[in-house]
Structure formats: structure tokens, C-alpha cells
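Supplementary Methods. Inverse-folding protocol.

Structures were first reduced to a C-alpha cell string of length 214. This string, shown here, constituted the complete conditioning input.
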């Protein structure tokens, strides 16, 4: 019988290294997929946070609707400036008044007709009619109106005599313009522009000054 001869070269080891490489590659691939999922999740959360921030900014800035401001800006006297003396206690004035409606909203303000009342020491002495109009978004509308200021409605004129003697007549004005804020042609909110002003008529110079509104 022929004897078996051994190979002069050692047998190659089994596939242990190949199996380890496959496991390592699978683990690496799994780690990459995990990192990719985490990255996607991070971007999703970041996008959601940014969207929330934009919505909040829009709501607090653009959607916040405030009442417009109605003011007396200035005035000049035309045609007549009749002021009596400390003894006569009368005045008859005609004033061209500049009014302003300041609208700080991002939508325009459409207001209805209104009336501005001027008063001397709490007693109405004249009125100005305000026409229906619109103040554009983020702007100030300016317009003029003529008002007759007369002392004939005053019951107690003793204080008027002292004011005429001092050379200064102190007046107040008040009003309210009702209207709506129109935002993006979709949202409409009822708002009003109120006026509460004080001013002084300087008799010697025939001017209106120290106009203060709140």
C-alpha cells in the first residue's frame, strides 16, 4: 500500500479573519446609519425650533394690533382773532388746526367720521368735524380742519378775565375715532384712536403753543 505523504506547506487557517472583518464592517455600517439618523433628527428639531421662532416673531410683531394715536399737531388763526379785555371777558377765534392719526400697525386703519371738541376749563367752546378716511400701515396721516372757538357758552367768565389779563388761554381737546385695522386683507380688528390734548393760546403773538397730547 502506498503511504500518505504530508504536504510540505502548512494548511491555511480557517475563515476567522474574514468573519471578523464582516462583523467589523457591519458594526461600522450600523454606526454610520445611527449617526445619520441622529443627524436627520437634529435637523428636524432645528427646523421645528426655527419655525416656532418665526411664528412667535410674526405673532408678536406683525399680529400685535395697537390703538392708533389721534393728536393735535399745530394750529394757526385765520380771518378773526377777537379777544376782549379783563373787563369784557370774551373771545371769538377761528383756528385752522393740523391733526394727525399715527398708525403703528402693519395694517391700515379705516376710521369713521368723528368730532373733536375743544374746551376751556371743561366747558366746550368749539368743535371740528373729522371726515371718514384711512391711515396707511406704519404711517402718520395729516389733515387740517377749521374750528370756531367762542366764549358765548361760558357761564362763569371771571376766570376768563384773569386769563386774558395774563395773556394766555389754556384749552383742552378730546375726541375718539372708531374704526378697524385691516391686516393682510383677511384680519379685521375694531380699534379706536383717542385724543386727549392740552394747549395754550398766546394772545399777544396770536399763536397756538405748548401742545401736549397723551
Amino acid at each position: 500500500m502506498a503511504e500518505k505523504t504530508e504536504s510540505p506547506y502548512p494548511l491555511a487557517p480557517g475563515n476567522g479573519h474574514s468573519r471578523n472583518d464582516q462583523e467589523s464592517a457591519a458594526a461600522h455600517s450600523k454606526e454610520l446609519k445611527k449617526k445619520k439618523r441622529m443627524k436627520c433628527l437634529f435637523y428636524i428639531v432645528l427646523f421645528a425650533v426655527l419655525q416656532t421662532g418665526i411664528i412667535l416673531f410674526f405673532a408678536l410683531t406683525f399680529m400685535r394690533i395697537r390703538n392708533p394715536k389721534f393728536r393735535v399737531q399745530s394750529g394757526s388763526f385765520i380771518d378773526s382773532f377777537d379777544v376782549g379785555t379783563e373787563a369784557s371777558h370774551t373771545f371769538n377765534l377761528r383756528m385752522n388746526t393740523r391733526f394727525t392719526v399715527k398708525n403703528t400697525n402693519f395694517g391700515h386703519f379705516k376710521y369713521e367720521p368723528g368730532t373733536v371738541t375743544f374746551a376751556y376749563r371743561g366747558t366746550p367752546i368749539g368743535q371740528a368735524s373729522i371726515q371718514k378716511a384711512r391711515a396707511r400701515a406704519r404711517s402718520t396721516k395729516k389733515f387740517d380742519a377749521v374750528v370756531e372757538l367762542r366764549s358765548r357758552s361760558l357761564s362763569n367768565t371771571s376766570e376768563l378775565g384773569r386769563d386774558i389779563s395774563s395773556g394766555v388761554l389754556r384749552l383742552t381737546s378730546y375726541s375718539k375715532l372708531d374704526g378697524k385695522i385691516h391686516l393682510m386683507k383677511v384680519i379685521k380688528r375694531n380699534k379706536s384712536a383717542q385724543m386727549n390734548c392740552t394747549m395754550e393760546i398766546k394772545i399777544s403773538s396770536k399763536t397756538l403753543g405748548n401742545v401736549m397730547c397723551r
